[in-house]
Structure formats: structure tokens, C-alpha cells
């Protein structure tokens, strides 16, 4: 088996499956990353999709990527308990090589209609995150990882994100999905050189790398645009350069994953471009596989130490998250959102709203309002 596995993020979406099918037929896709919790409305998988997942599971080339757990929710929710039960059951059906989730907490009241946003890097947030990761590890019995977040409120958060991930993951011997397009968003949005940013991450914890595309969004400041991790376009040239630069610095890297949403794959041209990006990524993996020897990779096996007692909570954090979600989802203008924040419990707190970048507050409003559940 090759050291680096060229992987597609493949879910039950007709456009995405149409783009991936030639890669499966030719044997070019070494592995699949499956967002197992995206099918919450289905009672059962279609038989043909079940067979596809089974085939990669049997070859120990299946990894699971969660979306909706809301790792840093200040209050423990019934939806999180149900998510863990579903995870435990699905891990009995399929052999996942590892399980991952997104960093952040979900806006909105319904976990399936939200977007992950950052939290203050406090002891309370650390305690909650470590507790939740322990529960995920206990439910799946597999190595557990977190994906770095594309969104940050301030440049200070950008610089501290890698260290906070390291501290979060240490008790479960966890790993990082290093999403290079997420780093690209922060490089351009906060004007930080890639090398500076990469040096702030514990690269010895990287087991998986994501590459994807995104989009540019206008800002109220006409002199700038905001890079968004929307997964709806081809991979930028810069992200491929990042990939080639970072692979030698990640000694335990196992999976390279190409991501794109089906909404960006509705035409034959877009599907062709997706496969071209995958093949370029796979070629980089092949070159590295030729150069490297038979090194033993870190397995990131979690310790058998399930969390005891009730899930960790911080009701003050929960209240602040609820206030923030409401402000972002309902403010008509940036100015209205900013006034509401200054009058909220987030003002003069660990959230440091006074130091938030205005263009990221704009972006958070757009994200929250896009995902807000419509009545």
C-alpha cells in the first residue's frame, strides 16, 4: 500500500459522484473520505452507495469526516448524544481508519442548519473541547482528528490556532486535518505569509491534508475582497504550491484529500477540472511515495480512557454563543451587528469583540444568514 493515499471526499450527491465515478473505475482513487453524518434525513443508504463504501472499508481505505457535532457548544445538547450513538453504530458497520470533525461551534438552533465559527481560546473552551473529543474517541474506537478552521475573528486567533489545536488533541493522542485552502483564506484575509503561518502548527500531528477551491466575496471596504472556503471551484495554484512545500514537513501524513461540493460540479467542464485537480494532487503523492522509504507512521491510537461523569458544560459560554448567533443571523447591517455586540455579554470579555476584524464580522453575518433555517 502506498504511503500517501490520494483520496476523494465523496458523498451521496449526484454531481459529485458523477465527477468521481471515472476515478473509481480507473482505480485512481486510493481512498474515500465520507461525511457520514450528512445523511441524517435518510433511514438507510442506497444499496449501490453502501456497496461503494463497503469496498473501501474492506480495503482499510475509508475515513469518516463529521460536520454537525458542534464540538465547542457551551451546553450539551440531545443532538450531540444522538450523534455519538449514530457514530458508534456506523463504526460497527464500516471499518474507518479514523474519524474527524470540524473545529468550532455551530450557529443556529438546529445543528443541521448552521456554520462552524471560532470560540475564545480559554481554559473553559479547552476543557469542553477535550471532553467532546474524548467522547468521540470512546464512541468510535478509532484515531480522532480535527480540521483547522478557515474562519477567524482576528489575526491574534489566526496565530494561536495551531497551538490550541495541539493542546486540544493531546489527551486523545489526536491528529490534525490540515486544510490548505483554509490556510490560504487566512494568508490572504489577514496578510500573513504562508511560511509564517505553517510554522505555527504542530505539523507532527498532521495525518491528513485537504485541498479544495473557494470563492471571493466583496467587502464593504471596496479595496479588498474576502476569500471564502466555499468548496465550489477549482483548486488555486497557491494551494498546490503549499501542498508541495508542506508534505516533507509532515512526518506522519497518510491521506491527501480532494474536496469539492456537488453544487460546483454541475457541468461537464467543472467535472473535468475536478478530475484534473485530483490527478495533479495524485501525481504529487506518487512523487513523494517514490522518494520516501518504509517509515513507520504514527498510528494516533487513542488511549482507553473514556470520559467519566456528565459532559462538560459552560452555561456562560452557551449564553454568549446564543447571543452571537442571534446577532449574526438577524442584523440588517454591519453597523447594527457591531452595536448589538457592544451591548451584549460578549463585550469586554474573552471574546475580545473590540479587536475583531470588521471584514470578518461581515463574513460571519453572511455565513450565519446563509445557513439560517427558513421557516
Automatic annotation (TrEMBL):
It comes from the Bacteria. Coiled coil: none annotated. InterPro entries: MbnB/TglH/ChrH (IPR007801), Xyl_isomerase-like_sf (IPR036237). It holds the Pfam family MbnB_TglH_ChrH. This is DUF692 family multinuclear iron-containing protein. It comes from Chitinophaga pollutisoli. The lineage of its organism: Bacteria, Pseudomonadati, Bacteroidota, Chitinophagia, Chitinophagales.
Amino acid at each position: 500500500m502506498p504511503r500517501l493515499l490520494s483520496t476523494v471526499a465523496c458523498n451521496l450527491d449526484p454531481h459529485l459522484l458523477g465527477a468521481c465515478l471515472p476515478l473509481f473505475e480507473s482505480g485512481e482513487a486510493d481512498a474515500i473520505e465520507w461525511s457520514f453524518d450528512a445523511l441524517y434525513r435518510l433511514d438507510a443508504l442506497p444499496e449501490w452507495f453502501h456497496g461503494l463504501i463497503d469496498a473501501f472499508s474492506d480495503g482499510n481505505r475509508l475515513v469518516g469526516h463529521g460536520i454537525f457535532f458542534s464540538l465547542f457548544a457551551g451546553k450539551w445538547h440531545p443532538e450531540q448524544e444522538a450523534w455519538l450513538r449514530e457514530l458508534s453504530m456506523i463504526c460497527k458497520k464500516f471499518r474507518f481508519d479514523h474519524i474527524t470533525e470540524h473545529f468550532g461551534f455551530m450557529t443556529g438552533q438546529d445543528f443541521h442548519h448552521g456554520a462552524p465559527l471560532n470560540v475564545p481560546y480559554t481554559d473553559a473552551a479547552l476543557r469542553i473541547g477535550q471532553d467532546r473529543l474524548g467522547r468521540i474517541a470512546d464512541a468510535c474506537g478509532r484515531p480522532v482528528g480535527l480540521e483547522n478552521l478557515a474562519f477567524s475573528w482576528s489575526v491574534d486567533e489566526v496565530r494561536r490556532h495551531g497551538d490550541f489545536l495541539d493542546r486540544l488533541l493531546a489527551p486523545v493522542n489526536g491528529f490534525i486535518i490540515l486544510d490548505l485552502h483554509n490556510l490560504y483564506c487566512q494568508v490572504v484575509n489577514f496578510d500573513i505569509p504562508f511560511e509564517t503561518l505553517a510554522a505555527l502548527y504542530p505539523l507532527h500531528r498532521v495525518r491528513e491534508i485537504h485541498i479544495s477551491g473557494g470563492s471571493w466575496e466583496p467587502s464593504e471596504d471596496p479595496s479588498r475582497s474576502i476569500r471564502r472556503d466555499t468548496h465550489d471551484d477549482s483548486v488555486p495554484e497557491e494551494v498546490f504550491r503549499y501542498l508541495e512545500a508542506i508534505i516533507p514537513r509532515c512526518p506522519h501524513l497518510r491521506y491527501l484529500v480532494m474536496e469539492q461540493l456537488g453544487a460546483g460540479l454541475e457541468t461537464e467542464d467543472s467535472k473535468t477540472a475536478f478530475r484534473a485537480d485530483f490527478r495533479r494532487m495524485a501525481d504529487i503523492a506518487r512523487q513523494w511515495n517514490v522518494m520516501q522509504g518504509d517509515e513507520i507512521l504514527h498510528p494516533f491510537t487513542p488511549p482507553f480512557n473514556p470520559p467519566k461523569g456528565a459532559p462538560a458544560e459552560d452555561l456562560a459560554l452557551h449564553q454568549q454563543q446564543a447571543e452571537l448567533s442571534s446577532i449574526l443571523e438577524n442584523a440588517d447591517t454591519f453597523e447594527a451587528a457591531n452595536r448589538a455586540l457592544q451591548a451584549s455579554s460578549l463585550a469586554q470579555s474573552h471574546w475580545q469583540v473590540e479587536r475583531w476584524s470588521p471584514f470578518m464580522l461581515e463574513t460571519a453575518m453572511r455565513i450565519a444568514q446563509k445557513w439560517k433555517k427558513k421557516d
